[in-house]
Amino acid sequence: VFLAASTVGIAFMAFYLFRYTKRALSRVGLALIVGGGIGNMIDRLARGFVVDFVDVKCIPYWKYIFNVADIFVCVGCGLFILYILLFEAKVQKKEASQ
């Protein structure tokens, strides 16, 4: 299930990345998401599971375990959301006024 969903999601985002994105912020965000997804997919194919190797304890009894691909996906999502909030609203206002 994870492989199928990841493959469809990565393919859709890669298509959108190369076909429709024009601004650097959206390109970087989507590229990070696609790269992180591919990294996790490689782990799933090679090992059958994703290897999480960064172990951080912030608060007692709270433990965060993740990997670099997870960081790429999270940072990429943040950048893409920032792009949507900053630039897409301007584009829609501009189109609505014309």
Please give a handful of descriptors for the protein shown.
mainly alpha, 2 strands, 98 residues
Describe, in short, the structure shown:
With 98 residues, the protein is mainly alpha-helical. The chain contains three helices and two strands, in the order ααββα.
Structural notes for this entry:
The chain has 98 residues and is mainly alpha-helical. The chain is flat. The protein has a two-stranded antiparallel ribbon. Helix 1 runs antiparallel to helix 2 and helix 2 (24-47) runs antiparallel to helix 3 (68-97). Helices cover 73% and strands 8% of the residues. The protein has helices at 2-19, 24-47, 68-97, and strands spanning 54-57, 63-66.
What secondary-structure arrangement, pairings included, does this model have?
Elements: H1 2-19, H2 24-47, E1 54-57, E2 63-66, H3 68-97
Antiparallel strand pairs: 1-2
